[in-house]
């Protein structure tokens, strides 16, 4: 991955369609923060919910993934 814009000092909102493990949002937020972003937050439209025997996608209406300032 590469950052193609100047993000220094900016607040950034990452938007993703499906949140499965969170690894993608985590990696992108760390990259943006390492390039000087002031804050990174995530917004997801659907989240994978794990149950005892299967994995189902639970569609949320604009579910907030929370602050990813890691």
Report on this structure.
- This protein is an alpha+beta fold and 70 residues long.
- It has one helix and three strands; from the N terminus they run E-H-E-E.
- The chain has one helix spanning 23-34, and strands spanning 11-19, 39-50, 55-67.
- A three-stranded mixed sheet has the order 1-2-3.
- Strand 1, helix 1 (23-34) and strand 2 form a beta-alpha-beta unit.
- Mean pLDDT is 76; it is low at 52-70.
SSE diagram, text form:
Layout: E1 11-19, H1 23-34, E2 39-50, E3 55-67
Parallel strand pairs: 1-2
Antiparallel strand pairs: 2-3
Mean pLDDT across the residues is: 76
Low-confidence stretches: 52-70
Helix content: 10-25%
Secondary-structure element string: EHEE
Q: Which descriptor suits the 3D outline?
A: elongated
How would you describe this structure in keywords?
70 residues, alpha+beta, three-stranded mixed beta sheet, elongated, disordered C terminus
Brief summary:
The protein has one helix spanning 23-34, and strands spanning 11-19, 39-50, 55-67. It is an alpha+beta fold.
């Amino acid at each position: 991955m590469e950052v193609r814009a100047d993000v220094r000092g900016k607040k950034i909102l990452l938007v993703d369609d499906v949140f499965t493990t969170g690894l993608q949002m985590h990696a992108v937020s760390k990259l943006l923060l390492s390039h000087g972003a002031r804050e990174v937050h995530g917004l997801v439209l659907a989240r994978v919910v794990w149950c005892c025997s299967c994995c189902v996608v639970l569609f949320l209406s604009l579910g907030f993934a929370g602050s990813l300032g890691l």
